[in-house]
Amino acid sequence: MMAIMHRLFRHKGAAFGVGVIALVVILAAIASILYPDGPWEMVGGIFEPPFQRAHPLGTDGLGRDVLTSIVYGTRVSLLVAFVSTVVAVTVGVLVGAVSGYFGGRLDDLVMRVTELFQTIPSFVFAVVLIAIFTPNIGSIVAAISVVSWPPVARLVRGEFLAIRHREYVEAAVVLGVSTLRIIFVEILPNVVSPVVVLASLMVANAILLEAGISFLGLGDQNLMSWGYMIGEGRSTIRDAWWLSFFPGVAVVATVLALNLVGDGLNDALNPRLARRGRA
Amino acid sequence: MTDTPILRIVGLSVALPTGADRHHAVHGLTLDLHPNRTLCVVGESGSGKSLTALAVMGLLPQPEVRAVAGAIQFEGQDLLALPERAMRRIRGRRIGMVFQSPMTGLNPVMRIGDQIAEQFRFNGRDLGVDPRRRAIELLASVGLPDPTKLLDTYPFRLSGGQRQRVMIAMALALEPAVLIADEPTTALDVTTQAQILKLLRELQERYRLAVMFITHDFGVVSEIADEIAVMRHGELVEHGAAGRVLGQPAHPYTKQLLAAVPSLEPPRRAPVVAPIVLQTQALAKTYRSRDRMFGRRREVIALRNVDLAIRRGEVLGLVGESGSGKTTLGRVIVRLLQADSGSITIDGAEVSQLPRRQYRPYRKRVQMIFQDPFSSLNPRRTVGQIVAEGLLAHGMPAPQAHARARELLRIVKLSEQAAERYPHEFSGGQRQRIGIARALALEPDILVADEPVSALDVSVQAEVLELFEEIRVRLRPAMLFITHDLRVAAQICDRVAIMRRGEIVEEGPTSAIFAAPRHAYTQELLAAVPGAAQLALGQAARPVSATVLEHEPK
To answer: In this predicted complex, what is the ipTM?
Structure first.
């Protein structure tokens, strides 16, 4: 574990990514200490331009501080992204494991279902799901989870198919080890690395999905989120560019950071590449 | 050796990246290749023999691994100093190479003829030959039937031996002066191997080739070597004419290697008198590809009517070439596969048709040892967990199971501290011992060993065979020992069964079968064992128990 951390931080991009994410997480945690009044409070004049002492990133058409909104927006983005990723990974791993381990008709069936999910463009699918249910944070998380699990399932299934016939798994069968234990103790730990890498990219993707959904006005109306801010600022973009620009920067920076961490994890968890890096 | 050498390796040193277990893969190596002679470079894994070949071809995985000293003189040039462009003109055209794996050496989506023609396209435009005609000639010269038709065939239609012939044809396409062959027969069956070795001999004479033949197998060496160079840890320990090195090895390491080659002469063993533990009757298994929406269903018969019986404390050798069904039989017996029909009885009780749940108690009694010491241990679990797994699965409390695991590690001659470590920290031989400890944990009555020593170096192989001998004497399981190596079978088995195309064609006491094989196929197999005639060593010393070998490093 320590060795993996060490290798991860040797990767410059990943170290930068971890730094950015740490900053975002800290901002989310201390948002209410920094700005106890919350993001909806009118604190200044309308459309104040950025880079001034009182409101460094300017204010919007209702006199709300953009920086405060972005800081509160981290909470929504992170919450939605992490919860939906955890749900999607859990579902994907279970489905993929069962499908890959047992194979046969069950596998055929499961794979056809995942293909059904994958043929529908995930963003459109998520929007439809949210439109059917009431748009609130719960349904957003659920929708993002529903559209995100199939790639995990396919990845895990592939790994299980490959590992199921390794000799150490067969040895466990011959020893009389129970099927559940074979799946969870013998095989699953060997699948963790690619899943961790995929999960880091899924978090990034979930942030984008959430932003897109809020941009379309399907987000939770009670929560300030980056996508909502971009959507709101869109109509005045020629007069007040900062309303859309800074939340956009926040999205780009966070997603890029997560992608860099994903890349770094991929290298750190792949011992062969890591060795080449050392040479 | 009056003629001048065509290629000289002088003081070659190849450096490994920092952090590797030694500085130099090859250190101060000096060797000469002569026209029309075969130099065998022999050594165990990690001896630097393959890197030497790659250095000659200019194919070292630079910059991590590179030649740091010495020279390779060939036709007035130092190959090590040549730029890549110039090297490309020598590679293939003046020095040909044949690699080990015939399965991955050919491009699967390219017709054979096109692959050979490729050689001319990049190298031989100036030769002024019709590629197609030349390809046909080449394929004919390596003894492939119907070369014209073969040109338009894809590699997957060819057997391993045929592919290796194509690879040799490609290596010889531009009539090189030097041929480097890196373990070219290791992946092949013995009968195929014998044919390929014969072919290489013939081609060498016809083209006056200087051959550098890299191998770990002294049997093969004795078949084709004019000269032998023995390498160890990157250094040349002995070098001389084949007859001299095999007959009167000077260096202790050479002696040790030669002594570790199992003799083809089975030791005298009294017939085992004990009750029959495992019996199979009319066992049959056919592999069927799953129904697809399109395309035909394919069937391969793996076992037909296999009858065998093993007594307590007896070792039955199951010998056959790849595809003979021997591994399938082993897997059916441990119920990794389900037989289509026939019966398996353990102590008289029929078990082959038992449902999973009712079979579970028998799992404990039937254990398996696997071939590949690298894929048979879970890389994410400690050795202690691996060995204790079976005991835990059958309800032993954890502290007891782990204590027992340590005891088992001692039995297979590993230290108890091994329990805390992970498989990657061990060498191949040590890993195989861990696999054996895992199988022995449940004190099985029946042990199926599927090629347990095939992946090991010869000296390590001897140690593991010694361990099997000890298990036989001390624990007395009924053992099915699957192997393709008749030398190993001769040493360890009370009886052998010869398998071919899913059938047992001959079965009997080991000494009787080796002395007077009745079935034509058995005779063919025995005749194909490399070095059967030349390597008449080891009759005096039974290598399995008599040689004391230095322990492998680490």
So the answer is: 0.79
